[in-house]
Amino acid sequence: MTTARIPAGRLVLEGVSPSAAAGLRAGGGGGFTWLGGEPFEGTRDAAGMIAKAFVSGVHRPEFGLYVLVRQEDGRAVGSVSFHAAPDEDGRTEIGYDLVEAARGHGYATEALRALAAWALARDDVSRLFAVVGHANSASRGVLERAGFVKVGEGDEEDAYELRGPVRPGT
């Protein structure tokens, strides 16, 4: 199975195969050399969702997990993923994380902008959705720099959305 590659400035978003996702979930590196030695826990959680979707027969590789690989040295610095394929309204949720040593360098914003552009250029995606905790100001900043707008507030989290272009017939 060929995995997708999406260029993202200083990064390449490398699609993760179901077997690599299973390896990541089990505690391995998934075939990547990680800055700091291992991925952040959110990457392992997302890998588990991909492995489960594959076993259930609902995995769509293009709407899976992407590892953020720095072009300068080939090291993985984090991940960005879809929580599922888009629904019938063209909406899908995304999440992301970085290893601690890679934070504060703009990698998450670059990756999110690239993935959003890729997704919203498709006919089956019209809106991207993300949820972030109130205390996570860095993540809120990433979403806002990538063009997401806050659309809801909960007790502990805020909801953000990025809408794609309006297409004829929608």
Task: Report what the structure shows.
- The protein is α+β, with helices and mostly antiparallel strands.
- The chain has a single domain (5-163), classed as Gcn5-related N-acetyltransferase (GNAT) (Aminopeptidase).
- The protein has helices spanning 18-25, 41-56, 107-120, 137-145, and strands spanning 5-8, 11-15, 65-70, 76-82, 91-98, 127-133, 149-153, 157-163.
- An eight-stranded mixed beta sheet has the order 1-2-3-4-5-6-8-7.
- Helix 1 (18-25) packs across helix 2 (41-56).
- The N and C termini lie far apart (33 Å).
How is this structure best summarized?
Helices cover 28% and strands 29% of the residues. It is an alpha+beta fold and 170 residues long. The protein has one domain: Aminopeptidase.
CATH superfamily: Gcn5-related N-acetyltransferase (GNAT)
Named CATH topology: Aminopeptidase
- How many separate domains? 1
Distance between the termini: 33 Å
Shape: globular
- Percentage of residues in helical conformation: 25-40%
> Which parts are unreliable, with pLDDT below 50 for 5 consecutive residues or more?
none
| CATH architecture identity | 3-Layer(aba) Sandwich
Mean pLDDT: 92
Helix-strand string? EEHHEEEHEHEE
Q: Calculate Rg over CA atoms.
A: 15 Å
What is the number of strand segments? 8
Provide the spatial order of strands within the biggest beta sheet: 1-2-3-4-5-6-8-7
- The level 1 CATH classification is Alpha Beta
Individual helix count: 4
Structural class by sheet pairing and helices:
alpha+beta
Proportion of strand residues:
25-35%
